[in-house]
Design brief:
Blueprint: H1 8-26, E1 44-48, H2 53-59, E2 66-71, H3 75-89, E3 94-96, H4 100-103, E4 110-113, H5 120-129, E5 133-137, H6 144-157, E6 161-164, H7 174-183, E7 190-196, H8 217-221, H9 262-266, H10 268-279, E8 288-295, E9 300-301, E10 304-305, E11 316-323, E12 327-332, E13 338-343, E14 346-350, E15 355-356, H11 358-361, H12 372-377, H13 385-395, H14 403-422, E16 426-429, E17 434-435, H15 439-442
Parallel strand pairs: 1-2, 1-4, 2-3, 4-5, 5-6, 7-12
Antiparallel strand pairs: 7-13, 8-11, 8-16, 9-10, 11-12, 13-14, 14-15, 16-17
């Protein structure tokens, strides 16, 4: 795919951002997005992958962008979301099963990707080579090698790339306040940080089932190995509902290493991210990963499950990560979901609902310096991840959730999964980004794409 696929519309879009220039970046964050300036300056977006979070990020973005197209391999999901989008923006977006038809279009400035994880890298790389900026849901990658490839292509193409770790912007300012507390020395020297990310339940045996007529199963699998569709009749309720509770598709893809990384890359991508940000470890990595306690739901041999009809990611775990400056990180499936920071002079806990502890209470008498939150964020704080993405599209600078910091923290999550799969401690070289003295473990840093679904570069 050629970088020459930049359209007149895109040139107008970028020329408009240059003209807005300095004025756009001294205004408050809420007023800096195109949608709040002029309808003629609204970028044109498309979303690829529409269930749950796919619709969520699209729905949050209508006030900032126009959606020209949507894509999904499930015709029911695609049809329903096209109608919802038409009602929202008073114009019906085009519908596609094959995302490549979106990348071929010359009127689309950026794509939002919310497919299952095993598709993220292929679509992201091809989109960048097609001249599109990219917003991709977390976790960004299935393997560490995929992260390195995305970094290479971002640098090569100059595309703006936002990772959908919305906890950096859309969970109030609790996490930013937590980082500011650490950086201001309010707990002294950090000695330990515990990330509580929850566990998962094992599945019963899930039999081979007939593929629902609305799903292109081969295309859904894409780069992953060719396997039978599996599902039990019981349906999932609540968030992610309307699909089988137990399957190897749709919502349950998170519980299979073939498509995702379980809780380690689901919630870990949120809380390990904030922990690394606070520790100043967003451009480095750990030296050692040790699985202290864990439970896998099926038998493993040489790091691979020997059973293929049940979920295979860890159900419970306690992992120790040796971080720079002698900080101990614990990633735990037990306890309250959130992050506990412990230092030589105090400790506090933060999650999406609260920030508590003596250092927090002390803020009443000794508040953080003015501008401390903005200093953490790197400028005026945006309350919408899409607005931050569009600001970055205007400035041609990388956004708050850039691929480099995301990949560095996600390496911890990927390595934790590898350590459990192989049942051993792993030593990590953060400079070379490889496992030290363990060829078998290093073989899990990449995976081979299925023939016919290789990345087009």
């Amino acid at each position: 795919m050629s970088l020459s696929r930049q359209t007149t519309s895109r040139r107008r879009f970028l020329q408009g951002t240059a003209a807005a220039g300095a004025a756009a970046f001294v205004a408050p964050a809420a007023n800096r997005a195109f949608a709040l300036q002029s309808p003629n300056e609204r970028p044109v977006f498309a979303t690829i992958g529409l269930r749950n979070q796919g619709w969520g990020i699209t729905n949050k973005s209508f006030k900032f962008a126009d959606f020209a197209a949507l894509a999904d391999v499930d015709s029911n999901v695609l049809g329903a979301n096209v109608e919802k989008a038409a009602a929202k923006q008073k114009k019906k977006p085009d519908a596609y099963k094959d995302y490549r038809e979106i990348l071929d279009r010359k009127d689309i400035d950026a794509v939002m990707i919310a497919t299952p994880d095993h598709w993220h890298t292929k679509i992201s790389v091809e989109a960048m080579y097609a001249g599109k900026d990219v917003y991709c849901e977390k976790p960004l990658t299935l393997t560490i090698a995929e992260g390195k490839l995305i970094e290479k292509v971002v640098k090569e193409t100059g595309r703006v790339f936002q990772v959908g770790t919305m906890q950096r912007t859309e969970s109030g300012q609790r996490f930013l306040q937590a980082i500011a507390l650490v950086k201001a020395g309010r707990i002294g020297t950090v000695k330990k940080v515990t990330c509580g990310i929850g566990g998962m339940v094992a599945s019963p045996v899930i039999p081979v089932a007939e593929v629902p007529k609305e799903i292109d199963w081969d295309f859904w699998l894409g780069p992953a190995p060719k396997v039978d569709y599996r599902a039990l009749p019981e349906m999932r309720q609540g968030y992610g509902g309307g699909v089988p509770l137990y399957s190897n598709c749709h919502y349950s893809f998170r519980n299979w290493h073939e498509y995702s990384g379980g809780k380690l890359t689901d919630w870990g991508a949120h809380h390990v991210d904030i922990a690394c940000w606070a520790l100043g470890a967003s451009d480095t990595g750990p030296s050692k990963i040790t699985p202290l306690e864990y439970s896998l739901p099926v038998e493993y041999k040489d790091g691979n499950p020997v059973v293929h009809d049940q979920y295979n990611t860890a159900t419970s775990f306690k992992i120790r990560v040796d971080m720079p400056n002698d900080v101990e990180m614990i990633i735990n499936s037990a306890g309250d979901n959130g992050i506990l920071f412990e230092g030589t002079e105090g400790r506090f806990f933060v999650n999406r609902g609260k920030i508590v502890g003596a250092p927090v209470e002390a803020l009443k008498e000794n508040p953080l310096p003015e501008g401390a939150i903005e200093e953490v964020y790197g400028g005026p704080v945006s309350e919408n991840h899409t607005a931050n993405f569009i600001d970055a599209m205007k400035s041609r600078k990388q956004p708050i959730s850039d691929v480099w910091s995301h990949n560095r923290m996600l390496e911890i999550c990927h390595l934790s999964n590898i350590a459990m799969r192989l049942d051993r401690e792993l030593k990590w070289d953060p400079a070379k980004r490889e496992i030290v003295g363990d060829d078998q473990a290093n073989s899990f840093l990449s995976r081979e794409d299925r023939k016919g679904y290789e990345i087009n570069m």
